[in-house]
Amino acid sequence: MAVAHLTIDPAFAVAPVDRRLFGSFVEHMGRCVYTGIFEPGHPSADADGLRGDVLELVRELGVSTVRYPGGNFVSGYRWEDGVGPRGDRPQRLDLAWRAIETNAFGLNEFMRWASLAGVEPMMAVNLGTRGVEAAAELVEYCNLAEGTAAADLRRKHGVAQPHDVRLWCLGNEMDGPWQIGNLTALEYGRLAARAGHAMRRVDPGIELVACGSSNSDMPTFAAWEATVLEQAYDQVDYISLHTYYDPEKHDEASFRASAVDLDGFIDNVVATADHVRAKLRRSKRIKLSLDEWNVWYQSRFTEPEDRGIEELPALIEDDYDGTDAVVVGNLLISMLRHADRLTVGCQAQLVNVIAPIRTEAGGRAWRQTIFHPFAHTARLARGTVLRAAVTAPSMDAGRYGQAPAVDAVATHDEETGALTVFVVNRSTEPVPLAADLRAFPRHRVRQHLTLSAEQPELTELAPQGEAGEILLPPVSWHALCLTPEEPQ
Ligand code: AHR
């Protein structure tokens, strides 16, 4: 059996771990909000209808930042519909998903939920059917203390303190032909620059994310990013990336190698942003926000045009298996490896809709397999990301050619000394892994968490002391937690 070798050294530092990498996404889509996080009358719900069982799981998941309210939904949304007395809120047709939106849940309910969940809100503005004015007024409603119409409206709605939202998305997937109000790159770049300019006049401290391509297979990928950034470079801080991996779209080997694709996607967006930086002769570097990513059985999805209008459609409630969880673990490894430029990540979505957490209306809430690699990466990745030097047997990676069977990254918390190594074996063969932790001679493995295609439930193996050599079962994910031995 060919052995994989792993070398970890503090000299291979990438960047500090940014907590925002462990974000998620709540969209008014399917049952993410209604009967997901919000269900008045549910046995665990509080007086505002926020489900306590879901909140508990969200805290356990370790989510840092949550993007809201969409997604495609935001491109036809009027934020004013979701604030103020419930009885006055209009019931509308949501054009993105062809669903009835009651507006029983809106901005202030989301902010209260976010504070109970202990997460940072990341808001998206509608640049599909609306524009500069509505976007600036939304910032004013959220972030100004008092003395202007929108700030005073919030106070009238019973929220005295500003929500102080730092992170804002300038629309959603505006290149997509499915997007309500979709635009060309030039049109969108100008609009993003104008909206960003006005929003920053309201609150100069906010951080702005421009829409990148909806995915890297879009025919305009990279040209879109270049044009948008040429128009909006000075106004924005981030460019977004969205990517979903469908286990059934290509062959199975390609799916297991999804992180190879994500690595290339991130590198290409960094290169494009830096090309624009050079062209415009700027010193600022644009950061990356992977604000939608996940495994999604997208080929099973029925387009909105082919469905009737419903109030609570159960949309894309995918069930995940062990391989899906290993792929999610590997995508998180790829994200950490790029922590020098990628500082925001939002797994899409949080509850029910392609989600780590599922619920039954009126019933239980539970964890899906993909919950575990996310929760434990979010919990254990602390301090500084260290690139792991890996030499591994090569595997067939389908449409990506050949790829190393083993992939890994580490984090080192200088304060506590904790070193965590995240490893995947993405091949269908077992692979022995020999670890060289030369710069950490006193570190011993205290905890070994794992799951695999064969064993999708999270398992804790007996810690084996020295990292030495371990056998990685086929299609498996591992978190090895090491701490230094006390000196004798
Ligand atoms: O997350 C589901 C949908 O996927 C989002 O609404 C959209 O932005 C993306 O295409």
Multimerization status: single chain
Count of helices? 10
CATH names the topology of the largest domain as TIM Barrel
- Biggest beta-sheet profile: 8 strands, parallel, barrel
Tag the structure with descriptive keywords.
488 residues; Immunoglobulin-like; single chain; TIM Barrel; seven-stranded antiparallel β-sheet; 2 domains; alpha/beta; eight-stranded parallel barrel; binds alpha-L-arabinofuranose; 10 helices; globular; 25% strand; 25% helix
Overview of this protein structure:
The strands form 6 sheets. This protein has an 8-stranded parallel barrel, surrounded by 6 helices. The chain has 10 helices and 25 strands. Helix 1 (52-61) links the parallel strand 3 (23-25) and strand 4. The chain is α/β, with parallel strands linked by helices and 488 residues long. It has helices at residues 52-61, 107-117, 132-143, 149-156, 185-202, 223-232, 252-256, 258-280, 322-337, 371-380, and strands at 4-7, 13-16, 23-25, 65-68, 92-94, 99-101, 120-125, 167-170, 207-210, 238-245, 287-295, 342-348, 357-359, 365-367, 384-387, 389-391, 394-396, 402-404, 406-412, 419-425, 431-436, 443-452, 459-461, 469-472, 476-484. Residues 27, 29, 70-72, 172-173, 214, 292, 348-349 line the site of alpha-L-arabinofuranose.
